[in-house]
């Protein structure tokens, strides 16, 4: 039954320029998502150059500033005129609250009661703390602590006085080092000594100028025909205002 139909299906040929085929192709093009976004994809592949002084950028910045200023002053605009009608500042609850907060934060008013009462303190003379302070003052007093002994007067030619002077001279630092005064100022260090060489080597190791060479001291010439340099020149010409 279906053998004849199956044979005819493979032999049917429709011309490509018939109205039905053309209509089907037009409908397929209209509903095709790939063709719908083809122009956008081509535009994306070309890239874009958005400058800071472009008109859309300036318009966006101006719109942002206008919106920001509006949002910043929105609460202020809503509260305008709400305080009209108070005869005095004390009748306004917000102003009264602000004045109260200012009084609490005022340091002079905060300490006024203390300054008024600090000079009205009366301490009994025979209080235990006062007596203890007096005893401590007597103990640490330099006048009561030191009792100078009698100043004895000795003859200069007594044997004990002569012996004490000799002992003081032997113990004196000036007399002890008087024989070394001729050595002062004549110090000398050998040029090739170990300490001098070690100090020079340490100075060379710590010298920043000898340790590294600054980039501005190095001679460098850029190659003008490098691919990145040529591409940069081409881009500069394309982006040039002229």
UniProtKB/TrEMBL annotation:
Q: In the record, what terms sit under GO molecular function?
A: actin filament binding
One family from Pfam that matches here is Nebulin
InterPro entries the record matches: NEBU/NEBL, Nebulin-like, Nebulin_repeat
Q: Which UniProt keywords apply?
A: Actin-binding, Repeat
Q: Which GO terms describe its biological process?
A: cardiac muscle thin filament assembly
Task: Provide the Gene Ontology terms for cellular component.
Answer: Z disc
Question: What's the protein here called?
Answer: NEBU protein
